[in-house]
Amino acid sequence: MQLHNFNSGPAILPKEVLDEASASIHNFNNTGLSILEIGHRTSWFVEVVEEAKATVKRLMDIGDDYEVLFLQGGATMQFMQVPMNLLDENGSAAICDNGVWGNKAVKEAKLFGPVTVVSDTSDKKHTYLNKQLELPAGTTYLHITTNNTVEGTQWHQYPQVNVPLIGDMSSDIFCRPTEFKKFDLIYAGAQKNMGAAGVTMVVVKKSILGKVSRKIPAILDYQKHIEAGSLLNTPPVFSIYVSLLTLRWIEKEGGLAEMEKRNNAKATLLYNTIDSHPAFYCPIAKEDRSIMNAVFFLTDPEKEASFLDLCKKQGMIGVKGYRTVGGIRVSMYNALPMSSVQAFCKLMEDFS
Fold it and tell me: Could you give the residue numbers annotated as active site?
């Protein structure tokens, strides 16, 4: 039976990435050594890091005023590392709370300075995005989650603000051409659309750093990581290498424009299928629906268990909704083929 991987993260990877990564475990670049056993300061691995950085900059079309870092701790660590590096007690962070991850960002930022929640969409269970933002005077930065993995919403146009814009892009990084230069700092856990779990990419405009008065532990200081070229401590070597392979795959397949074309086609097919069958409904505002994570429900909740059982029998993996939301969630990251979405839509039609 063919499996269809709709997991929300760690998520599906391109087959050629898996093949090359697997081969590197036995013999990395004909060195005779495994990627798992080479020194992280050897020229072999430094070349991996430098190529990965250069590829990110090409895909984002950014210059040397930005630095690319590969760090550990996941996006969860960035919830606190961002305010630790950027937010003083005499400043103020503006944060959009549009779901689970935005809410976590709010809680962590409050440990370092004042926080204003400028968008709270809990009144409608985070099924829409409030785009009318009013930033208080003296705002240090605005933080948004560009794609809400759990709730199924996505920013399709970013806020126009006159303060540094921070973006958690963990679940929609590189899914489409994006105005990356609008952001002063972007972070993304790799495991959804850019590689394997264990590494987080941070892209930061260097001019926003070094302005807080607090002392920052070296391992949490972006400037220290920049000085060390992402090698301040032993990095997640294998995860960074898998990210490089995935970045190469994106470029080889046609870049972000091609990713957007494919992702839009997959999302359109799925949402049209949901909307055309009364057995299912999607409560997300149509203009805010995510092309990465479609969240929807059965009209009759008592039939959800039988639907999920049918999904399991037909090899549909990872479609049960997040524990706090419930329902069904279908994640359609870059590496997911259209054939998997077609198979899932066929299953929905048969179930109806």
Answer: 101, 168, 192
